[in-house]
Amino acid sequence: MSEVKESGTGTGTTGGRLVLVGNTIVDLVMRVAALPERGGDVVARDSGLATGGGFNVLAAARRLGLPAVYAGAHGTGPFGDRVRADLAREGVGTVLPPLAAADTGFCVAFVDDSGERTFATSLGAEARLTGADAAAVLAALLPGDLVQVSGYGLAYPGNGPVLASLVKRLPPDVRVLLDPGPLVAEIPDDVLDPVLERSDWISCNQREGQLLTGLYGAREAAVALADRLDPRTGVLVRADAAGCWLLPPDSTDLRHLPGRRVTAVDSNGAGDAHVGAFLALLGHGLDPVTAAEGANAAAALAVTRTGPATGPTREELLASLDDGLLAARLSAAIPA
User: Is the pTM here over 0.85, yes or no?
Assistant: First the structure.
């Protein structure tokens, strides 16, 4: 890419379901004033179990009216049962049968008084994808589907090669979005590179952009990613309260889309809410700029609520908007 301009719009995308080949796990969320020092202890103000991981993306997309399917692995046991029940509650189907040999994994998420979160994860059935699973996912895809790939799965030693092979075999009428995640630096090049090559979109936060490019700053990371990737791959770098930087596919028009001022209560799942809303709005035929503006608004709402899966419904999103033109576009595109 020889030149990047600031401004511009992009082309629309229509049709399909969200098919998530990442992981759904159970979060044990503990709210603390601050993380303890090394070797220390802290008493949690409260705690609770919630389905998280890729479930947050699926729920965010479904609440904005996009059909969604979970195409990752899930286990047999109390955590697996919880995941399937929550997926069903959101209207999300599954592709693979439960894995009898293991339960779904879980994550301990500490949320401090600033709204920041810190994780420790125990892997389960979701980290045991096989070649037969990949073949089943390929057989279940429909033309126009949007496949979301998470860097968490790519970083798992067992899942990474299976997912890379799966992505390489996706038909051309299926669109791919990669969310590289905080473990992106641990993904082997022979796993990450073919996924980057096939991706139609990459959506990452500022820290993940820095890990991928070595550059600090959302704008700088967006420019460097655009230079690294094929011109047909769109780039979206999330900058938390500052919004995001967007470069649509086959464009040199880099654009900053401001965030919305809110009082953050819990940032757990905000990036997932952004990704799920962005995919839903693309799937409803909106252009990338409008989809990213809507995703900014969805993520802003998400951080004002506690819990990992806090993406808004259509009605909640529209009620939060003070931009009449954006509200009109979203209202016309998202089914009531």
Answer: yes
